[in-house]
Amino acid sequence: MLAGVELGGTKVFVLRASGHTIQDREMIPTTTPAETLARAVAILERWHAETPFAAIGIGSFGPLRLDRRVPDFGVMLPTPKPGWAGADIFGTLTAPFDCPAAIDTDVNGAALAELRWGAGAQGDAPSDSLCYITIGTGVGGGFAFNGRTVHGAMHPEIGHIRVPRAAGDRFSGRCPFHGDCIEGLISGPALAERFGVPGHEINPADSRWDDVANDIAHLVSTILLSTAARQLLIGGGVGMGRPDLLDRVRKKVVAQLGGYLPYVDDDSIERIVGAPLLGDQAGPLGAVALAMDALEGRRIS
Fold it and tell me: Are residues 125 and 273 in the same domain?
């Protein structure tokens, strides 16, 4: 039996699984660190008393300290989420349990799940490199290459990349750190500010969607050029909620790359840039994948 925690900016899923089949799941709202983590631990302790866990996997919103060699491993770094900077995510969730455990970003976990059981596992030749982008309250990106998630000094922070702006687009962005980085341009709150209405009320025919597609396409092009990922999946509430936007993005990616990458063209782009096959289960299954890695000794370093 494996335990998983997917810690998001608005809600938390606590789950237990047998293999990669989720058996039980409970949802709690993300409030303060003390309240949220205590409620998650209480669920885990109740389940652990019934059937002890073999391992725990944690996929959390970030930014996180993921270097096990430093004292603040598993701690939340400065974040726009009020009150969460400095929260000891890993230590609090794992302290009561004597079993292997792993922590990574929620998007890295989602990328790993898609690589193993989702879009990356389809066809006769499974993918060896996949990027998972989530566009919702924020913008995050996870990478799973050769069966492992990617990080070094930190984890990837693609949400804060700056991209070339569409001609005439004067929206200043709303990231508190960088203004018009990609998160400041295309996250759910940014879209609500840009269009002047909540996201679900934005008219699909509004011409400003073309500027949004331009921004996302430049992010996708940057990732393909810099990582050579075979697949790039766009998830999250914004990403999965507008299939027409994904079609616009694909066309713009092909145009922006201008034929430089020989494997990216009108015929291949739909296979390369798509929606997550696991849908909204990519995040929870990512926590399970991290627990499996902890059990097998593939720890974050």
Answer: yes
Please state, in angstroms and rounded to a whole number, the distance separating the CA atoms of residues 164 and 210: 14
For the stretch 206-246, pLDDT in tens is 999 999 999 999 999 999 999 999 999 999 887 666 778 99
Specify whether 253 is located in the same domain as 142: yes
187-190 contacts at long range (C-beta below 8 A, 24 or more positions apart): 187/135, 187/136, 187/137, 187/138, 187/139, 187/159, 187/238, 188/135, 188/136, 188/137, 188/237, 188/238, 189/137
The number of CA neighbours under 13 Å toward the Cβ of 91 is: 14
79 plus 217 within the same structural domain = no
Instruction: Please name the residue that has the structure tokens 């331009």.
Output: 214
263: CATH: 3.30.420.40
Considering the domain boundaries, does residue 193 fall inside one? yes
Which residues constitute the domain of residue 225? 119-277
111 part of a folded domain: no
- Determine contact, residues 130/230, Cβ cutoff 8 Å: yes
Cβ atoms of 110 and 154 closer than 8 Å: no
Q: How many CA atoms within 13 Å lie on the side-chain side of 93?
A: 31
Q: Are 58 and 181 members of one domain?
A: no
Q: Does some domain include residue 282?
A: no
Burial, 141: exposed, middle or buried (Cβ in 10 Å; 0-12, 13-18, 19+)? buried
pTM (2 d.p.): 0.92
55 φ/ψ sector (left φ>0, alpha ψ -120 to 50, else beta): beta
Per the structure, the count of domains in the chain is 2
pLDDT for 298: 60
Question: In the β-sheet with 273-274, what is the strand arrangement from edge to edge?
Answer: 148-149, 139-145, 129-135, 231-235, 273-274
Structure tokens, 260:
């430089």
Residue 43 maps to a domain: yes
| Model pLDDT, residue 79 | 86
